[in-house]
């Protein structure tokens, strides 16, 4: 393994890598994104994500050697950088000194990274996010979905970039493994889900809607839609779904934020799925 040393902040290699932190268009055009931090970089490598380049400082090598070695085994190119260069590659205040330029994973028709084990298409549980624009919310939702065993998500409309630095950190590596499909609008997404015989439910803050706890998640395939942090779901999405559902609330707050609503919905979906498995087990 050949390790090149970089001592200048003006290095074209460093500047090209740093540009991936700024704009989703740049990441999409290059088919690359930046992962930062010892654990996240090791998680990317361990999940089968291809590492185009790894940058690390000598201090990071001493402190996070076990994580770094896992990355270096698969990295196409490796660079040891001076400490003063690390902030250029970082989106955090206190960088750990390990950074990876990763190739966006190839995905199957249902959004799963190629090589991932598919779930049972006859009893799918999935979450649909429409116009969710806060990267922290997006990252939290991805992390929660993976933790609870929901394998599939769909992003509709103007959602934030899946590979934005804050999304990657918040997801704790879930973005490397989950099935994610992206749609330009609600109509195109609903057309696909209807074709797959998935029942779509629009989550709304309306006490007149069906309580999420009353949905029979133990059988069939379901997709619950969560809307934008400030505006909720579009009228197009709500009218196109099979039913409206709501999270029962007893306090004075009018609604949950997107990531909290998603966490409750995901828990309820998978709790129901678990009950179904007990009945048929």
UniProtKB/TrEMBL annotation:
<dbReference type="InterPro" id="IPR001537">
    <property type="entry name" value="SpoU_MeTrfase"/>
</dbReference>
<comment type="similarity">
    <text>Belongs to the class IV-like SAM-binding methyltransferase superfamily. RNA methyltransferase TrmH family.</text>
</comment>
<dbReference type="Pfam" id="PF00588">
    <property type="entry name" value="SpoU_methylase"/>
</dbReference>
<dbReference type="GO" id="GO:0032259">
    <property type="term" value="P:methylation"/>
</dbReference>
<dbReference type="Pfam" id="PF22435">
    <property type="entry name" value="MRM3-like_sub_bind"/>
</dbReference>
<feature type="domain" description="tRNA/rRNA methyltransferase SpoU type">
    <location>
        <begin position="126"/>
        <end position="267"/>
    </location>
</feature>
<dbReference type="InterPro" id="IPR051259">
    <property type="entry name" value="rRNA_Methyltransferase"/>
</dbReference>
<dbReference type="InterPro" id="IPR029064">
    <property type="entry name" value="Ribosomal_eL30-like_sf"/>
</dbReference>
<dbReference type="GO" id="GO:0008168">
    <property type="term" value="F:methyltransferase activity"/>
</dbReference>
<feature type="domain" description="MRM3-like substrate binding">
    <location>
        <begin position="12"/>
        <end position="99"/>
    </location>
</feature>
<keyword id="KW-0808">Transferase</keyword>
<protein>
    <submittedName>
        <fullName>RNA methyltransferase</fullName>
    </submittedName>
</protein>
<dbReference type="InterPro" id="IPR029026">
    <property type="entry name" value="tRNA_m1G_MTases_N"/>
</dbReference>
<keyword id="KW-0489">Methyltransferase</keyword>
<dbReference type="InterPro" id="IPR029028">
    <property type="entry name" value="Alpha/beta_knot_MTases"/>
</dbReference>
<dbReference type="InterPro" id="IPR053888">
    <property type="entry name" value="MRM3-like_sub_bind"/>
</dbReference>
């Amino acid at each position: 393994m050949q390790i090149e040393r970089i001592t200048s902040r003006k290095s074209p290699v460093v500047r090209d890598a740093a540009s991936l932190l700024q704009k989703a268009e740049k990441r999409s055009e290059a088919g690359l994104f930046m992962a930062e931090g010892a654990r996240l970089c090791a998680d990317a490598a361990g999940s089968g994500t291809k590492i185009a380049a790894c940058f690390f400082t000598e201090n990071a090598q001493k402190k996070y050697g076990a994580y770094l070695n896992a990355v270096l085994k698969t990295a196409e190119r490796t660079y040891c950088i001076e400490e003063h260069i690390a902030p250029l590659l970082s989106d955090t205040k206190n960088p750990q000194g390990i950074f990876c330029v990763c190739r966006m994973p190839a995905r199957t028709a249902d959004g799963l990274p190629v090589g991932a084990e598919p779930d049972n298409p006859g009893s799918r549980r999935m979450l649909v996010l429409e116009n969710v624009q806060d990267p922290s919310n997006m990252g939290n939702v991805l992390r929660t979905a993976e933790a609870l065993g929901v394998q599939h998500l769909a992003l509709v409309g103007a959602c934030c970039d899946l590979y934005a630095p804050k999304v990657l950190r918040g997801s704790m590596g879930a973005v490397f493994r989950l099935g994610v499909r992206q749609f330009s609008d609600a109509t195109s997404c609903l057309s696909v889900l209807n074709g797959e015989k998935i029942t779509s439910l629009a989550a709304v803050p309306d006490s007149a809607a069906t309580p999420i706890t009353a949905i029979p998640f133990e059988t069939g395939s379901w997709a619950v839609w969560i809307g934008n942090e400030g505006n909720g779901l579009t009228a197009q999405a709500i009218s196109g779904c099979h039913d409206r559902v709501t999270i029962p609330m007893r306090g004075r707050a009018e609604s949950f934020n997107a990531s909290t609503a998603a966490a409750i919905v995901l828990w309820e979906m998978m709790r129901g799925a678990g009950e179904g498995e007990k009945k048929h087990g």
